[in-house]
Amino acid sequence: MNIKAQKRPVILTLILVMFVTLWLIVAIFPFLWTFWGSFKVEADFFSKIDWKYSIFGIRTLAETGYNFTGNGYEGAWIEQEFWRSVINTLIVVVSVVVISLTLGTLGGYALARSGYRYAFWLLMLALIFRAMPHITLVSGYLLPFFQWNLWGHLPTTIIVMVAINQPFTLWMLHSFFLNIPKEMDESAMVDGCTRFQAFWHVIIPVMWPGVITTGLFSFLLAYNDFAVTGMLLSQENQTMVPKIASFLGSTTVKGNIMFAVAAVVSATMPLFILVVFFQRQIVSGLTAGAVKG
Amino acid sequence: MKHRTFMWFILPSLAAMILFIALPIFSVFTQSFFVSHGQVLIETENCGPFGCKKEVTVDVDATKQLNMENPLGKFNGFKTYTNRNHLAFQEVGIAWNSSASIFSFLKSLLNLPFYKALLFTITYTFCVTPFVIVIGLFIALGVNSLPTILKGPTIFMSLLPMIVTPLIGALILYWMIDAEGIIGATLQKVFDDSSLSLKASPSLTWIMLMVYGVWHAAPFSFIVFYAGLQTVPEDTLEAAMIDGANRWQRIWYIVVPYMMPLVVFITLIQLMDNFRVFEPIVGFSAQANATSLSWIIYNDLRGQDVQLFGSASTTSMLTILGVGFLLIPILVRTWRDFNTKTV
Lengths: 293, 343
Fold this sequence. Notes:
The complex is a heterodimer. Chain A is an all-alpha fold. Chain A has helices at residues 10-37, 42-45, 52-56, 58-64, 71-79, 82-113, 117-131, 134-147, 154-178, 182-190, 195-224, 227-232, 240-250, 257-291. Chain A has two domains: 8-75, no CATH class; 81-291, MetI-like fold, CATH 1.10.3720. The radius of gyration of chain A is 24 Å and the shape is globular. In chain B, 72% of the residues lie in helices and 6% in strands. In chain B, helix 6 (113-144) packs antiparallel against helix 12 (247-275). The radius of gyration of chain B is 27 Å and the shape is globular. Classes of the chains: A mainly alpha, B mainly alpha.
């Protein structure tokens, strides 16, 4: 990139760097602050008098005898049984990712390899479905699900989330499949493979990066969802996000708000780890649909 | 690919989408024409020594029976669409006739729940989207000028606001702007006004929600622009420089046209995502001052004593119509591209 046309005057670089620094503070500070504060008592986390209280934990020291306290975590995980929601989330997210990818690779492959007009129209239909606000679909599910006693169970939610994520998964995998040369499956079929064998033994092994990237995004969609999980799961089947939302209603009692803070930090941790390990895939996934227009 | 093979490959995915996206839309459409049965009332006359009293009681069994026989409720036609909680034709008509200026007309519109939500949703969508694009572009330009070693960590940190669960992201900011949180308390000190609260005034709430929206979505446009910047043709840039184009001319005539498809892509995704704004309102507990279309559907479905399926479905239908309007320009464009390509 070091060509002369890209050189900037010093002032411009300085302004841009300052802008980026400012952005980084805005982006990261709320997380650091909440993480640090989650180990304090409420009087420190919401310290109106002096913000330094929550950094040094002055009231935490006075109330508990230590500078840090795990009371929030203890309350959330044990007293409010947050661990149940963690297990539910795990079940939902893993199932959604696996099923989405299975259906999506098959469909995406077909869309990428079919030259007919209807493949294009299916992609357009998927785009329209992608634009539907999820809550509008939920209002279509609720009454039938109540009637057929399907409401509240994890499998129902999993299937619904797979379907809602399908348009996005199809689009993304479709664009990854387009990058794989047609000649590969054609030569396999000349050698006597059926279409499915060619897909399974030849294309999938070279598709892993695309599948992993798409899997990451299905993971995020399932993990971050509130509209579907919040409406379709019964109390005992709640996943993390609706559980946190339900904390808010019941935490007006002093001290309990720290349960919600601790739960929020606990739920954010897996996402941090995900970004640490899969940053490259996330970036490539965001640009997969875009750069090719 | 043969039609038959294609069908088998696409079938599972298509079946899922038809069953859980297309049919629910149909279900919403049907439900929007029905309202729930009222309770069956029986009037009985109790006669005592001090005369007769008429008493109205709820016939629980009959109500149950009615709901069992006809779970959809009773047919209501377009009445739910036109009632006060939705399009409110009557109220709008009255407001139109009685208001002296367009301003007071708009003000009385804001008392109607549907229009209030619609106005916020539209304002949010069309304010957040341009900001996301501009801020994302500047971050991308800035990161591009950083030394290579800093780029990785910068991208890592920038991704966080986008990756985080929307409800959780909203909560984190909400706790900070609380009157006793760090930003809220600092603002009170700076303006020396101990009653200043970002939650109390409608306009501040709106601004706060939009700031959250930009914070949440800016990383997305940053990443897309950043990837685009890596592939700007260097030869063309150099050629332009030799021809005497200065920095701004190079940016305006080469980089910007090159990035235009990306802007279209981000705009499309952002319009779709911002139009469904919902979680921040729950996270910020902002419903008193700002509601969105998605939020009023949620509120109807969660209903304190009864779930208002008919009402939620009607708002859903209107929302879907809104999404349709948003998508028309894009669909028309794609249709034109497609036709010119094949002909």
